[in-house]
Amino acid sequence: MAILRRMESLRRQLRGARWGLPLARSIAEEIGGDKNAVRALVRELFGQDVEVRKRAADVARRITERDGRLLEPYADELTGLLETVPVEESRTRWHLGLVVPRVAHTRVQRLRAARAMSLLAADESNVVRCSAVEGLGLLAVQEASLRDEAEEMIERYLREGTLAMKNRARTVMRMWARADRKKK
């Protein structure tokens, strides 16, 4: 019974009038490691309501900021969703552009996610392009064969990108430096 109440609460919150970062973080915290709640969230990502899908993607992003393993069982489905979300849904694409690299846990998944990041890099939305460079950077930490492609994207963003794109590129470079120091 508690599980059903929690799932109904998730549905209600995703459909509520108010939305913002604090609520997305709060819902992510509530979901915690509850596999049923994670499953319900993923179900909402595949729903027909564009606004609910965007909000569910936002919550998924907040979950993966702490622990991508919770959504790893859905890595293939989430990548497929990212590949098919319409261009008009830039906020959903932005959030999923960060979720997918965090949950890709096999080489095949990382390479597929990298292809998706390459497509996002050409998106008309600045925030989506920003997620592409950050996502590819995350993937390159785990998959060395992607490092050259990620470095090319970073160089291009630093040379030609918007201020936000340049900032994300520098963030990836700092992330790589931290990862390289840990390896030593």
Assign the CATH class.
Answer: Mainly Alpha
- CATH architecture verdict: Alpha Horseshoe
How many helices in DSSP terms? 10
Main sheet characteristics: none
Distance between the termini: 50 Å
The overall pLDDT, averaged over residues, is 92
Uncertain runs? none
SSE sequence, one letter per element: HHHHHHHHHH
Protein architecture, described:
This protein is an all-alpha fold. The protein has a single domain (2-183), classed as Leucine-rich Repeat Variant, CATH 1.25.10.10. The chain has helices at 2-15, 21-31, 35-45, 50-66, 75-84, 90-103, 107-120, 126-142, 147-160, 163-183. The radius of gyration is 16 Å and the shape is globular. The N and C termini lie far apart (50 Å). The mean pLDDT is 92.
Q: What is the topological layout?
A:
Elements: H1 2-15, H2 21-31, H3 35-45, H4 50-66, H5 75-84, H6 90-103, H7 107-120, H8 126-142, H9 147-160, H10 163-183
Helix pairs in contact: 1-3, 2-4, 3-4, 4-6, 5-6, 5-7, 6-7, 6-8, 7-8, 8-9, 8-10, 9-10
Please name the defining characteristics of this protein.
single chain, 184 residues, mainly alpha, Leucine-rich Repeat Variant, 0% strand
Q: How do you describe this structure in short?
A:
With 184 residues, this protein is an all-alpha fold. It contains ten helices and no strands.
